[in-house]
Amino acid sequence: MKPAILVARAVFPEVLHRLSAHFEVESNQDDVVFTPSELIEKLRGKAGAITTSSARINRELLQQLPNLKMVANMAVGYDNFDVAVMTEFGVKASNTPDVLNETTADFGWALMMATARRITEAEHWLRDGQWHKWRYDYFLGADLHGSTLGIIGMGRIGQAIARRSTGFNMRVIYHNRSRLAPEQEAFANNAQYVSKDEVLRQADHLMLILPYSPASHHTIGAAELAIMKPTATLTNLARGGIVDDKALIVALRNKQIAAAGLDVFENEPKFDPDFLGLNNVVLTPHIASASEATRRAMANCAVDNLIAGLSGATPPNLLTSF
Ligand code: GLV
């Protein structure tokens, strides 16, 4: 008999087709976002699951699911998993690294450029029928070329963002838990390792692309925003909770920094409505990896992991070790 699995959110139909060759699949093509207790009910008797960040895999859930053997997250971030507890319960966990690096880096640039050059603000103004003449000072923004790009979180995506800056003749400074090897720094447009405060002080454009954990909670709050340049932009591609959104709203309102581009929010999708009252922020609904090819690659990566894990092999992107 094939093992039973749950695909906890809607996916491309061909993904279900691929899974059904190996498993008894329960799908959720209506894309209901399950509550924690609904998720437990759906997972009862299942050997595995494909999840996204809306599914919290924690002690309360695992205590009730003795048959569960593996959960494959369709995301590179896995702050929805309590990996220590999954390890304790012998439940394998995997994520989808690498396949989304370049697409996410492309989007980071799109968001940073839209923020610096006020593209969505200008478009809203145009659509609103306000464009009657050209003026020398309409929508003056900040240059990217020749400026300093500061990156906090210099993993694979951070490095891909840095590499793209060569064409803009930018200086790259970064902060990370650990310094990159010299050859990696050289490949990332000669990125220079500095303290977090130096990144904040010197960056003309700050890019946040570090994983969320209790240790990285509110990496950017009021104190950090206070030492940034008043002309600087901030782009958050990482996770809600990396930035203290209330403090950012105050800083944007008071023009303590020039503008922000945000793809992720605290409590998303219920983000702070005060963002909507600000015109110096570009808001997108967590879509950095959303190219057609990459979302398919992420889904297939999660499937590869689940097939390997439930057949007793080591999943290519295993996060647990026991
Ligand atoms: C998206 O946010 C991901 O972690 O893949």
Structure description:
The chain is built from twelve helices and twelve strands. By secondary structure, the chain is an alpha/beta fold. The strands form two sheets. The chain has a seven-stranded parallel β-sheet with strand order 8-7-6-9-10-11-12, sandwiched between helices. It has a five-stranded parallel β-sheet with strand order 2-1-3-4-5, sandwiched between helices. Strand 1 (4-7), helix 1 and strand 2 (24-26) form a beta-alpha-beta unit. Helix 5 crosses helix 7. It is globular. The chain binds glyoxylic acid. Glyoxylic acid binds next to loops. Glyoxylic acid is lined by residues 75-77, 100, 289.
The helix/strand class is alpha/beta
Report the CATH superfamily of the largest domain: NAD(P)-binding Rossmann-like Domain
Major beta sheet, strand line-up: 8-7-6-9-10-11-12
What ligand molecules are bound, each kind once? Answer: glyoxylic acid
Number of strands: 12
**Order of helices and strands, N to C?**
EHEHEHEHEHHEHEHEHEHEHEEH
For the record, the CATH class of the largest domain is Alpha Beta
Mind telling me which CATH architecture of the largest domain this is?
Answer: 3-Layer(aba) Sandwich
**Helical segment count:** 12
The number of domains is 2
Largest β-sheet summary: 7 strands, parallel
Q: Overall mean pLDDT score? A: 98
Unreliable residue stretches:
none
* Broad shape: globular
Strand content of the residues, in percent? Answer: 5-15%
Compute the CA-based radius of gyration. 21 Å
Which fold name corresponds to the CATH topology of the largest domain? Rossmann fold
**Amount of helix:** 25-40%
